[in-house]
Amino acid sequence: MNQSKLSHFFSIQKSEAKSETISKINKKVRPAQQINDNTYSLYFDGCSKGNPGHAGAGAVLYLGNNEIWAKSIYVGNRSTNNAAEYSGMILGMNEAITKNITELSVYGDSMLVIKQMRGEYKVTSDSIKPFFDKAKLLEKQFSKISYTHVYRDKNTRADELSNQGLIRSA
After folding, report:
1. Which residue blocks in the chain are alpha helix, DSSP H?
2. Is the model's pLDDT at 125 over the cut of 80?
């Protein structure tokens, strides 16, 4: 895993230039269920070609049904799918904190990550433990947070972003 690529989003920062952020705010409607207009949601995804291999991650924030932020990153050239999934979630959680969001619903298609964050699965991998610990630290910044597993067909935008993260390696 390329630590220099990941280190920039592992620290909690209230103001950070978003050079890799999509330049304009998209008004795309998310593919999931209709949500109250004042609810913030984070969808995340990660992918690894080779597992371990080149990996990308993506995250998207919605206010109600409107996309308000999206970003993709290159995770590294020897990263696992689980590391990429956690990277996407951490990326989005950091942005939510930057935007002063205090209540967040988190959605991802990684059953492992969702169940570990809910405390239903133990973290047994030494390589995943730092990601889990970072996510739990970020979790404390929210007054209310929930984690929900969604199937891939309800996570298409985050999936698209995670694959775009792979392109950054070229």
Report:
1. 3-6, 81-98, 111-117, 129-139, 156-167
2. yes
What are 157's two structure tokens? 């935008």
Question: Could you give the maximum distance between any two Cα atoms of the chain, in Å?
Answer: 40
* Model pTM score: 0.81
pLDDT in tens, 35-64: 567 899 999 999 999 999 999 999 999 999
Are 75 and 87 in contact by the 8 Å Cβ rule? The answer is: yes
Q: To which H or E segment does residue 55 belong?
A: strand 53-63
Architecture of domain 3-8+22-167: 2-Layer Sandwich (3.30)
- The span from the first CA to the last CA of the chain, in angstroms, equals 16
Could you tell me the residue ranges of all domains in the chain?
3-8+22-167
Mean pLDDT of 77-104: 98
